[in-house]
Structures are given as structure tokens and as C-alpha cells.
Amino acid sequence: MLFSEILGQDHIKNHLTTSADFGRIPHAQLFVGPEGSGTLPMAIAYAQYLLCKNTNGENSNGNETCNLKFKTLAHPDLHFAFPVATNDRIKSHPVSSHFLEEWRQLIDNQPYGNLFDWYRILGIDNKQGQIGVDEAHDIVKSLSLKSYEGGYKVMIIWMAEKMNTSAANKLLKLIEEPPNQTIFILIAEDEEQIINTIRSRCQILNFPPLAEATIQEALIKHYQIPVADALKIAHQANGNYNKACDLVYSDSEDTQFEEWFVFWIRSAFKAKGNKSAIHDLISWSETIAKSGRETQKQFLNFCLDYFRQALLLNYKAESLVFMEPKTGFKLEKFAPFVHGNNIMDISNELQDAIYHIERNGNSKIILTDLSIKLTRLLHKKAD
């Protein structure tokens, strides 16, 4: 993967290639950035730069045979670990090596893809993937061997926050004192979910969201869409190139999420003193509970964004509002009901619901409880 193919993040590209050129290569790095900011493509390009002995800031002037291997991610000294779970094909003890074909498919088609995209490819969106102790055993085993080509070995751990405690503890010593010429690159969206003992042993690089102009330019180049359309999509994407690509194809789950959200909000408004609306909320909870847990978590995070956008609009920060409802729902009419007197409570209830769903709580009960609380909070008056 060429650095020139990665959108924006020029200061990070320069830092990585310059430090590699001078031989200052940390044995463990943590790339932290929001979805769609390019952490995974950057990690792959950096691994290629190291393994293929490329120079001058690009992956096109080193070992050509090595560079060709990276086009199919087939280099024997490049290793990956990522969240997995059992599916129709792998019935027990799933590890990343069982899913390399699907992994290459994701990177080939959606290098900026998120965890939800990955679970859909695996067919496990009703389960929650993790990097478990079986994976840790595999990592220790593969890195204990000498490199095939006599240089570096690189281990990229994607979505490292999905590493459970047993796996993290098993890898701790290896990350602290890896074998000679072994490089760890951990990738995370939320570094706070990684245990401190792992984080403290990594050099952290923070990736900002992509600039609107960068996303707009990429959309025009890759999809040949009009400038005005590209600008609109780049604004709606809010720094997330993966979301921008979904919007181009109208493949974003946001449309379905918005329909669920609008029905939920309208039912919650009507529910005060209205028994039939309470039945609507319970029915809504049953519908959402039938979707996979990852879909439920994704939807609740979407709701968090929606409430934040309404709050910004209510407090006249229109320049920060990027959502454009597609269902005819009027955000400007909804905005006055989201204010300083209820936003923290709404946010806390949504985050609590995500927490309990992650820990395999009963989704129907969690969502019904959330709906009843939302009814009360939306009717709360501003100070």
C-alpha cells in the first residue's frame, strides 16, 4: 500500500517514514483514531515500508518482490490479529488465521471499514467478536519463529480494545520485551478500553478525523461525482471516509437507524399519559432486540450523535451540525427539546444501555427501560 493512497494525515506519514529512515523504530506503537481516519491503511503502509526496506517516504523504491507481496497481503513476516467469533464455518476456538481470506477481502474492498463491516463479512453481527487467549497463544507462537526474510516481523493488532484481559495479560511481557526486530502496531478507536499496562508500553500516535476538503477530493477522484455532491457528502461524513463511501453507495445503515430513531422519539413524546404509545415503545424495543448486538450498539451510538446534533442546533452552533435527516424528520423542530437540563441524563442512559448490551444483558428489557426513561427526559423543561 502506497502512502500516497492514504488520505490526509501527512504529518503522521512524515513522522513514520522519517523515523524509520533514521532507524528510530519503536518496538510497540498504538495508532489511535476515530473510524474512517485511516489508522489501518497507515499501519499496513508503515509495515510495508519497514519490511521492504523502502526509502524516501514511499513504498515504491525498495525490494520490488517484497512490495508485490503486499498487494495481496501475502508477506510471510506480516501478521494480523483482529476480533473474531464462531460462525457457520468455524465452530470453536476461532482465531485470526482462520479468517485471513475474509480479512483480505475487507482490506481490498473497504480499507477504511469499521468493526460493523467486518462482522457483516464474517456473518457474526449477532455476536460480539474479541481477541481472546487463543489468539494470544497464536501470536506468541508466530513471533517466536525467525523472520522468513531475515529482517523485521510486524504484528498488526486491529481494534486492540477488543482484547480481553486474559489475552492482554498473556501478551504483556511479549509487547514489553519482544524478540529482536519484532514490531507491534496496535490500532484502536478508544484507547481507554485498553488496559494501562499495555498502553504504557506503546508509543501513541493520535489520528485526527479527516478534513472535509480531503474527503471531498477523494470522492471526486474515486467516484467521479459532481463537486457539489462531494462537498455535501464530505460534510455529512464528519471526518469519516468510511461513512462517506457508504453515503455514495446509499449503503449506510444510518437510513434504517434514522427510521428507528424517529419512530422511537415520536412514540416517546406521545407516551406521556397514553397507554397505546407505551405499547408502541415495547413493540419498538422488541424489534430492535431482534437485531444483532453489534447493530444495537451501532444504533445507540447513532442516537447519541443525533441528540448531540440537536443540542448544537438548539444552541445556535449550526456550523457544527452535519446530519441531514432523510426521512422528513425536522431536526430544527426537535432541537428545542434537547437542552442543558436533560442532555447529560440522556447521554448517560444511552451509554449505560450500550454497556449492558455489551455484557450480554437482555436487550428487550434494556431497551424498554431506556424508552421509558427517555419519555420522562424529553418532557423535562429547560432551565
Binned, the helix content reads 40-55%
Which of globular, elongated, flat, extended, rod-shaped describes the shape? globular
Overall structural class, as computed from helix and strand content, comes to alpha/beta
CATH topology (level 3) name of the largest domain: Rossmann fold
Give the count of helical stretches.
Answer: 17
What Rg do the Cα atoms give? 23 Å
List the secondary-structure elements in sequence, H or E.
Answer: HEHHEHHHEHEHEHHHHHHHHH
CATH architecture of the largest domain: 3-Layer(aba) Sandwich
Q: Give a quick account of the main beta sheet: strands, pairing sense, barrel closure.
A: 5 strands, parallel
Low-confidence stretches: none
Mean pLDDT across every amino acid position = 87
Question: Going by CATH, what is the homologous superfamily of the largest domain?
Answer: P-loop containing nucleotide triphosphate hydrolases
> Roughly how many Å apart are the termini?
54 Å
CATH class of the largest domain: Alpha Beta
**Largest beta sheet: strand ordering:** 2-3-4-1-5
Q: Tell me the count of domains.
A: 3
Strand content: 5-15%
Could you outline the blueprint of secondary structure elements for this entry?
Elements: H1 10-21, E1 28-32, H2 39-51, H3 64-71, E2 78-81, H4 100-109, H5 115-122, H6 133-143, E3 153-157, H7 165-176, E4 182-188, H8 196-199, E5 203-206, H9 212-223, H10 227-237, H11 241-248, H12 254-270, H13 275-289, H14 293-314, H15 331-334, H16 343-358, H17 363-378
